[in-house]
Amino acid sequence: MPPAKCSRTAMETSHGQVPWASTSTAPAPCSCGAWRPPRYDNPNVPRPPDSMIATRLLAATLLLFLPGLAACTADEPPAAVHDPHEAPARANDAHAAVEAVLERQEQAIREANMVALDALWSGSEGVYVFEQGGVDSSWASYRDQHLGPELSALEGLDFRHEDVRIRTGSNLAVATGRYVLTAHHNGEDLESRGVFTTVVEREASGWKIVHSHLSRRPRR
Question: Which CATH architecture has domain 89-216?
Answer without folding.
Answer: Roll (3.10)
